[in-house]
Structures are given as structure tokens and as C-alpha cells.
Amino acid sequence: MSTKKKKRTTPKKILIKEGTMYDAARLGDRSAIGKFLDHGVNINGMIDITSKKGTGQETMATPLYISLANDQEAAARLLLSRGADPNIPDSALGTPLMLAAGKGQLSLLRRLIEAKANVNAQDSDGWTALHLAAGGGDADCSEILLRAGADTTIKNKDGETAPGAPPLPALPRSALPAVAQPLSHAPTRR
Fold this sequence. Notes:
Structural class: mainly alpha
CATH class of the largest domain: Mainly Alpha
Distance between the termini: 68 Å
Shape: globular
Low-confidence stretches: 1-18, 166-190
Number of helices: 9
CATH topology of the largest domain: Serine Threonine Protein Phosphatase 5, Tetratricopeptide repeat
Order of helices and strands: HHEEHHHHHHH
Largest sheet: 2 strands, antiparallel
Mean pLDDT: 77
Radius of gyration: 20 Å
Number of domains: 2
CATH architecture of the largest domain: Alpha Horseshoe
Helix content: 25-40%
């Protein structure tokens, strides 16, 4: 019999500090995001993304918002599949749906709607995702939002409705799977 003692190993701990979940979402590191979530990090926790702290203009955002802002589609999809709330706005600009609409991220726009994002949510200036899509001339994003029930009569603080939004009838969410199919005439994104 061997008298050697077995070396006791302790499970590795993941150091969770300010910025780590932010970095994982920003960089699209799905493995790290999964580990953080498995170890109890709040999937909807707000992270300070201010570049100059102490200015009185701190900006807070969720990992979902951060991943969308950095074009990390796979990370955003992972966060949504793990239960990220698509209706939590960042502290300055708006909801993840507004961000996707403004950036013309068609597939993420569809996924956010499937995750029950509020298509008529307004930011602090009264803008909706439809204002952003239509204002940017993105007919495909506008159509998806309209078919998901976006209201063309919502006015922002300046009294403006979504510019150039075509008058399509609002469809119930039950019609969404047909809308969520890729559009054959979708423009190429840069």
C-alpha cells in the first residue's frame, strides 16, 4: 500500500469583478458568458459602461445590450436562450430592440421579437424601434416591426411619428413565424 497522500484539488473559482461579464459580452466570448451564468451571475445585471467614471453621466447596460452594440450576434442569441430580458433598456439610449432596429440587424430583430420584446417601447425622447428603422430608411426592419404590431401613430417628444413607415396592418404575434423567415430581397449589410 502506498503511503502517499492524494493531493487535494479544489474547484477553480471564477473571479467575478466589474468588467468581466461586460468584456465577455463585448467580445462575444460565449464560453465565458456560459461560465459566468452557470456560476450565478445575473443575466440581466446592469453593468457600468461609462468610459469616464465620476462624470455624473454613467451609462448602465445589460450583457444583452452590450453584445448587440458590439455586433456579437452569437453571444446575443446565447443570452436570449438563457433568459435575458429583451425589454430592459440601457440607462441612456433604449432597448435592445431599438438598438437592433437602428443598426439594421435583421436576424437579431426577429429573435428579439420572438423573445417577446416590446415593439412599441419608447426611449426617454419617445422614439420607438420603428422610428429608428424607418428614420434610417431600413424598409426590411420597418416591415418586420410593423408585422409584429409596431404602432405607426406613436409620436416622439417632438410630435413626430416614424418617418416613411408604410401603412401595413398590424398582425398578431401568431403571424410572426411567417414574418421571421429570411427576406429574399434583404440588402447586404456592411
